[in-house]
Specification:
The complex is a heterodimer of chains A (413) and B (403). Chain A contains 16 helices and 15 strands. With 413 residues, chain A is α/β, with parallel strands linked by helices. In chain A, strands 3-2-1-6-7-8-9 form a seven-stranded parallel beta sheet, with helices on both faces. In chain A, strands 12-11-10-13-14-15 form a six-stranded parallel beta sheet, sandwiched between helices. A two-stranded antiparallel sheet of chain A has the order 4-5. Chain B has helices at residues 43-68, 80-89, 91-102, 123-141, 157-165, 177-180, 204-211, 226-234, 261-273, 283-289, 312-315, 318-329, 331-337, 340-348, 353-356, 378-398; strands at 4-12, 74-78, 106-108, 147-148, 170-174, 188-191, 198-202, 241-247, 278-280, 295-296. Chain B is globular. The chains are: A alpha/beta (413), B alpha/beta (403).
């Protein structure tokens, strides 16, 4: 089977979890005998990637792409092409340009299916479908509804999602929760959606690393402090305001508690003000932007007595996998898709700051609970694998291809 | 033809479940067991629910069986905490049990009042709870137990030795193969290192056919008729005893009425007694009637739980061990406080169910045991428990105890 996969990021060039997922999913697919061409909107040295063909659809590097700004940004940024030519593109124009070039590129390859990740690649997916007549699978890691913290969000993005989801022959959603969002917010019929929960494998070498990024926190732990960590983008979607409210209750009962908020994001100034207003300036620390899955990122979990992800709305949320693997038991909001996957974690409503504080205090005050929770979560995480998730996708590919009356190009799978 | 007897033994128990009790309650509210109406931990509501589904209909059937068949007898154990809740929330249930016992053909088996694992942590406390249980049984039923069972059928040589010295005629255990070896559970045995006491071991195969498999449509033997069941019992080489031990709640709660479990129960005596020499015996009667076939050495602790038949359902993980050690660690200051309310709360926290709810053995596998837990997860169960423990400490500290 040959899969044309459309992505926006791929390690080491990425900003979020989607790049990691693309890398791990394609590795599993390649292991299963699937041929993949992975098209990106930038060029980079991917000579180390042997399991699939990586193609750049646009003449720009990853850093340039990142500089095109975000969803709500209409600024024109300067883009220097490899030829030396200088042009300007907004993020939306990047999406358009990517779609146009993918529509041309696909005419040179042969594929069975098109697999597109999230809204950024949906226009390209539609262009590829038009050019080839092949079935389009849209893989939803997050919707605009989620990113906007349960609000409407950017109407331009909503429209692209709406069209892409309806043009797709089938949709993969990362959780039952995301499936429900697609049904409720985008009017997609449930039978068109398959839940395929992302997992995250972490290498034993990374797990075995020594901690060295936060000597201050280690020193404080030696004198009886406990550390609660949240890691991710500091945005409204992540529920950090609620975490701070809960932190106030925790510090009232247990003054020797520190909160490390690792990651960048536009909400940081507001969160700093909030922490100060709650009298928590001495207990709450921000790292600012750190490299996703970099050493400081990984060490934030190693220094943690508890990891908390209190997201208001999280389609899945990969970070708890990392927290658990690197040694922190996890508390997640019930509004996170990963609550459907993991059982050996604490689950609270993001708005129930009282219960959040109660459970944080329980773990911080009881080493037996901490250890049991962590040991069971690690065992559970180790049992998770991409193989059954990829299998679920192949089944949908086949099902849809049968409907098209197509035969596979190479039927390894 | 020699005599053959079915020993039917039913266990009645309801814990005082801990409510959603937070660290913000600790040091302030001491109402650990008073969950609000409509919550999953509301003890009164649970007892009423089980009464309607199980206790009342089952007792009605048992009463009829006793009235119809003069040779029908059974044994029951009822934890003190269950009896206490019947008095409080379901006096009709208590009255129906009293009526059964008044026939003289229902034996009540001794145990700890609080359905605890105190035997393994504090021998003095254990004995106090056995005495409390004896007292409530005497008060409510006017009888004195002559046989003994450990909580969750916990059993080992030490417990048998203790029960022998305490003067019991019989003690119960799981008929667990590694202990029995080639032997059959269908005989009376003598525990190692004892003089007078006799050991009755559960025939778990036949017991579980009723308690676990009865309503399972995927079971090849489904549906289980009384005739089929009696034919299996008769296959046991004419051995003298069939020890059918199970939770009382099997009838109507674990196996719902629509499985036909009540009809099965009521048809059992007639079908069994039809053959000559067949009878029913209570636990103590069986110990009196048969010679010990052999002695049983059981240094390790067995229970009737799970495939392991050990204590791991209660004490298998670190947070369970930490919780129970913390609780028994308060024994001296609590008992010395002389505060009866405080002592009783401490004892109610000893009920084994609290530790069972913290079990993580099967948690990841969409565990069927979760059906028996009112909590969202074993971790939440642990939190409620430990917060109550912290409150006990706060209460002790208020009295000037050094904790």
């Amino acid at each position: 089977m040959r899969v044309l996969m459309l992505g926006w990021e791929l390690p080491p060039h990425y900003v979020g979890g989607m790049g990691i997922v693309c890398d791990q999913l394609t590795r599993q697919m390649a292991k299963d005998g699937v041929d993949i061409e992975f098209i990106l909107p930038f060029y980079a040295d991917y000579s180390h990637i042997k399991h699939m063909k990586v193609t750049a659809a646009l003449d720009q590097n990853a850093e340039t792409l990142m500089r095109s700004g975000g969803t709500y940004d209409s600024t024109y940024y300067e883009i220097r092409m490899s030829s030396g030519q200088v042009i300007n593109r907004t993020l939306h124009e990047q999406v358009e340009a990517f779609a146009a070039n993918v529509g041309r590129l696909v005419q040179y390859g042969t594929y069975d299916v098109i697999h597109a990740h999230d809204w950024l690649t949906m226009r390209a997916g539609i262009a590829a479908k038009k050019a080839t007549g092949l079935p389009l699978f849209v893989h939803i890691h997050a919707t605009e509804f989620d990113r906007a913290g349960g609000h409407f969000g950017n109407p331009l993005v909503r429209e692209i999602e709406y069209v892409g989801l309806h043009m797709a022959d089938h949709i993969f959603a990362v959780s039952g929760r995301t499936k429900q969002t697609l049904i409720d917010e985008y009017g997609i019929p449930p039978e068109k959606i398959t839940v395929a929960e992302n997992v995250m494998n972490i290498s034993p070498e990374l797990i075995a690393e020594e901690h060295d990024s936060y000597p201050y926190l280690e020193a404080m732990r030696r004198i009886g402090y406990k550390v609660v960590v949240n890691a991710g983008r500091m945005t409204i979607q992540k529920g950090i305001m609620q975490l701070l409210e809960a932190a106030r209750l925790v510090v009232d009962k247990r003054p020797k508690t520190l909160f490390l908020l690792a990651g960048g994001g536009e909400q940081i100034p507001e969160l700093q003000m909030k922490a100060a207003a709650l009298g928590l300036s001495g207990n709450v620390m921000f790292t600012g932007r750190i490299e996703g899955i970099g050493k400081q990122w990984r060490d934030s979990f190693r220094v943690a007595d508890l990891f908390v992800m209190p997201s208001v709305s999280e389609p899945l949320g990969l970070v708890p996998y990392e927290a658990i693997a690197y040694g922190a038991p996890a508390m997640i909001s019930k509004q996170s898709g990963i609550a459907e996957v993991l059982t050996n974690v604490l689950k609270v409503d993001y708005w129930d700051t009282h219960e959040m504080a109660n459970q944080m205090l329980a773990v911080l005050g009881n080493q037996d609970l901490h250890d049991t929770l962590l040991a069971n979560a690690r065992a559970e995480h180790e049992r998770l694998s991409w193989a059954p998730i990829a299998k679920r996708m192949y089944d949908r590919y086949h099902c849809t291809l049968n409907r098209y009356g197509r035969r596979l190009l190479e039927s390894h799978v | 033809m020699s005599q053959r007897a079915i020993v039917l033994y039913l266990h009645v128990h309801q814990p005082f479940r801990i409510r959603h009790y937070t660290i913000f309650d600790a040091g302030q509210n001491h109402d650990y067991f008073d969950a609000g109406p409509g919550t999953r931990e509301n003890n009164a509501e649970i007892v009423r629910k089980v009464a309607e589904k199980s206790y009342l209909p089952t007792n009605e059937h048992l009463q009829r069986m006793l009235d119809t068949h003069p040779d029908f007898r059974l044994s029951m154990s009822m934890s003190g905490v269950a009896l206490e809740q019947f008095e409080k929330y379901a006096p009709d249930v208590l009255a129906s049990f009293q009526k059964l016992v008044a026939t003289g053909r229902v034996e009540i088996v001794a145990e700890t009042y609080h359905h605890s694992l105190a035997f393994f942590y504090n021998r003095q406390e254990f004995e106090a709870q056995v005495t409390m249980h004896k007292d409530i049984v005497q008060r409510l039923f006017g009888v004195t137990p002559t046989s003994f069972r450990g909580t969750e059928l916990t059993y080992n040589n030490d417990l048998a030795y203790w029960a022998d010295k305490a003067g019991y005629k019989a003690i119960l255990s799981e008929g667990w193969d590694p202990v029995l070896g080639w032997r059959s559970p269908n005989f009376v045995y003598r525990p190692a290192h004892t003089d007078n006491i006799r050991l009755l071991m559960k025939n778990y195969k036949l017991s579980d056919d009723i308690a676990f498999r009865f309503g399972n449509k995927a079971w090849p033997e489904y549906p289980l008729t009384v005739e089929k069941f009696i034919s299996w019992v008769n296959n046991s080489w004419q051995e003298p005893l069939i020890n059918l031990f199970m939770d009382y709640e099997t009838f109507g709660e674990h196996q719902w009425a629509d499985t036909g479990i009540f009809q099965f129960l009521e048809a059992l005596p007639g079908a069994w007694l039809r053959a000559q020499g067949h009878t029913f015996m209570t636990v103590s009667q069986a110990a009196d009637s048969f010679e010990a076939a052999d002695f049983i050495d059981c240094p390790q602790t067995t229970t009737w739980a799970d495939t392991e038949r050990d204590l791991t359902a209660w004490l298998g993980n670190q947070m369970q061990q930490g919780a129970i050690l913390s609780l028994y660690g308060l024994a001296d200051p609590i008992l010395q406080s002389g505060d009866l309310g405080l002592i009783e709360d401490w004892r109610k926290l000893q009920t084994s169910d609290h530790f069972y709810y913290m079990c993580t053995k099967w948690f990841s596998d969409g565990d069927v045991h979760a059906y028996f837990s009112p909590y969202e997860s074993p971790y939440v169960a642990n939190m409620n428990f430990m917060n109550a423990y912290h409150d006990l400490r706060a209460r002790l500290a208020e009295k000037g105890a050094d904790v």
